[in-house]
Design brief:
Structural class: mainly alpha
Number of helices: 11
Helix content: over 70%
Strand content: under 5%
Shape: globular
Amino acid sequence: MELTYLGIVLCLLLLAIPACLLFVYDEQLLARGTVAVVRMLAQVAVGGLITYFVIVRDDYRISLLWVLLLAAWAAFGAVRRGRLPAIHYVPVLLGLLLAALAVGFYLLMAVARVHNPLQATLLVPVMALLIGHAAAVEASGMSAWLQARNDYREQYEFRRGNGASHLKALAPAIRSALQQGLAPTLGNARGVGLFALPLLFCALLLAGIAPLQALAWTVSLLVGSLAASVLAIVVSLWVSDRLLSSSKPSQK
């Protein structure tokens, strides 16, 4: 099975179905939708060409550089979506990068037991999935963390004055960050089972993986995505807290 350029053109013609309906009932939504689709196709085309180059070269140095650049871009998107101050870009980047590398190599080496975890055809898709999922959690989690630090400032000082450790005094803010960051993921668990899991499973089948192996990979990647999201936000919270704590003397 192989998709040709003609097949891709025929596939794009399916966009005429929603376009015609929107043209009749909502021209403004049609205009916004057209811009969004064109932007999406451009991003997919650019990302696909870069990924194609990385996989064809199959050089571990290029693959790791690609992971770094992807994490940097995802961190920029998370900071922008969460409307975070620029100083928190580094904590978000470190959280995404360390979580993706730790969980990704664990999946490849310990779970899947592949001989070469740096192989581009394995490293690239696994890291992309982990970083993409963790970035969405970072955006909402870090935003909630900063808001909670301000809201619970008096409570923090009260707890510290009564002998609580720095970590225990920050517990409400940490809890708020985890709740806001992971709530969409955990709340959509049923939707993942109905939609995301079958889509990922079918994509693996189209890639030529045997059904049972595809099912095992699907479960492993979904579990790994959840673990990477939690690890990413924990690392980012720790680094962010260190940055904020170190900047206090200069603000006085």
